[in-house]
TrEMBL record:
Location of the active site: 23, 41
GO molecular function: acylphosphatase activity
InterPro entries with a match to the protein in the record: Acylphosphatase (IPR020456), Acylphosphatase-like_dom (IPR001792), Acylphosphatase-like_dom_sf (IPR036046), Acylphosphatase_CS (IPR017968)
Organism: Platysternon megacephalum
Protein name from the UniProt record: Acylphosphatase
Length: 98
């Protein structure tokens, strides 16, 4: 069976990431890269979500979440979990959840 080359992972970003347009920039970056998934604020002051797409684009998104973010954000750390290969994308696009 051939590999689909599609991957998914969950993420949570810690630091000054709420009230600084982090979700908007994350959604824009996901759309720019052509990956799908979602982003949302948590009650704990973090931002969490899931991203799905080709492995190389997932790696670019991980780097962006870990090191770039929105211009006014301060990222202390990004935690990635549940990284796995998937057979099909589970979302039609990249969105912000509320």
């Amino acid at each position: 069976m051939a590999s689909s080359g599609l991957w998914a992972l969950d993420y949570e970003v810690y630091g000054d990431v709420q009230g600084v347009f982090f979700r908007k920039y994350t959604e824009d970056q996901g759309k720019k890269l052509g990956v799908v998934g979602w982003v949302k604020n948590t009650p704990y002051g973090t931002v969490t979500g899931q991203v799905q797409g080709p492995k190389e684009k997932i790696e670019i998104m991980k780097n962006w979440l870990r090191n770039v973010g929105s211009p006014m954000s301060r990222i202390d750390r990004a935690v990635f979990s549940n990284e796995r290969e998937i057979s099909t994308l589970e979302f039609p696009n990249f969105t912000t959840k509320y």
